[in-house]
Amino acid sequence: MATVLDIAKRNPNAAPVAVSDAARAAGFIEKTAELSVAAGAAPGGASLVGLTRDQLKDSLSAIGVPERELKMRVAQLWHWIYFRGAKDFAEMTNMGKELRAKLAAAYTLARPQVVSEQVSKDGTRKWLIRMASTGPLDKGAEIECVYIPETDRGTLCVSSQVGCTLTCSFCHTGTQRLVRNLTSAEIVAQLIVARDAIGDWPDAVPPEGAFVPNDGGRFVSNIVFMGMGEPLYNTDNVVAAIDVMSDGEGLSLSRRRITVSTSGVVPQMERLGTEANTMLAISLHAVRDELRDELVPINRKYDIQQLLDACRAYPGLSNARRITFEYVMLKGVNDSDADARKLVQLLKGIPAKINLIPFNPWPGSKYECSDWERIERFSEIVYRAGYASPVRTPRGRDILAACGQLKSETEKLRARARMMAEQGIGAEGVYAVRDGE
Ligand code: SAH
Ligand code: SF4
What we know:
30% of the residues lie in helices and 15% in strands. By secondary structure, the protein is an alpha/beta fold. The protein folds into two domains: 53-106, DNA polymerase, domain 1 (Orthogonal Bundle), CATH 1.10.150; 113-434, TIM Barrel (Alpha-Beta Barrel). The strands form four sheets. The protein has a nine-stranded mixed sheet with strand order 3-4-5-6-9-10-11-12-13, covered by helices on one side. A two-stranded antiparallel ribbon has the order 1-2. The chain starts with a strand and ends in a 6-residue tail after the last strand. Bound molecules: S-adenosyl-L-homocysteine and iron/sulfur cluster (SF4).
């Protein structure tokens, strides 16, 4: 069936694309988006927040800071922006007044706008974040970002794209029409926004009554790329963002506490391992190609065999650095004993953890979550084969902050949230992810 791809906006930075619902109905692997945000491109507006060292250097050069001073000035800015969380150039007292004035005249330290914050009874927080406009036609892309606190860790679930070009049949994000890559700065900015909101800077304090880890560590100690989008369709920006997030002189997150989840973009996996050196999670969800072709259509490009070969070759893989295999439990679809046995057989020889995810329904989805007894039985088979198989604990139930439910069409989401709450369906919430111990 022919599909009309209706280019909504031709903005060289934003370039979102609308795809007809017919495309999805016809079972297309992916929508074609014009993902033309250059790697490492500075975001719209002139905020320095989220920029890489090279981008900061260029920004300083552009206002006439002499070449010989650049390295030192970048180091100073880096410390203020990423170590202290400065919001005003006036705070940067180790820089001359004149330079501070020049910086303030040309740039800002603005964060993307927090459109709304929802706090669950269990302490999970979900922010709807509006990115700066990238051009006259762009009102600012909206994405969601979720914070999941536990006593000994705080996990931030970040988005890598606005929407997703892929069309996994059980995922709400896959139905979103507008798609564009986030810049590296926009990815980093999600961490900055979270740290602002929970008071995770030196001298800052968490909001009254906030649930944050109490083990003396950082309030955001772990990052998972499990929000909107396929990170390995935006590898350049994801790798650049991880470099900023893990820089020891700034945000300082351990790469072993950063997990990138992919639906299986095989050609990019080795690069992720070599350049970002993070933990890897694979959205497997099916053990037979025929079924995976339907659930995770990118399987038609890279099948299970190719995917598992790429896993075996993942740089740095060892028993201490296992790959997490995500498996969403769909009633009567992929949850039989035979599926469980085939799963452990397939993963033989790969240092792996298996994460069973109860399916989060959304209005219009054609699947149901497996019954609890079925999930337990499945988990038991996996456990007996020697794999830890935690079933993700539902988090943020009451604020609709669920895996695969993130979708930034705000109004629609709000309307749906209301509808789902009224009907008492869905809303299982984001799941606490135990990773990168
Ligand atoms: N695009 C990437 C990362 C984002 S999705 C990927 O697919 O891996 C994060 C995880 O949530 C994936 O494992 C995804 O398959 C899962 N997911 C998507 N929709 C879901 C739903 N409705 N219920 C439960 N998990 C879902
Ligand atoms: Fe995209 Fe991941 Fe959702 Fe598939 S599961 S549509 S890859 S976000």
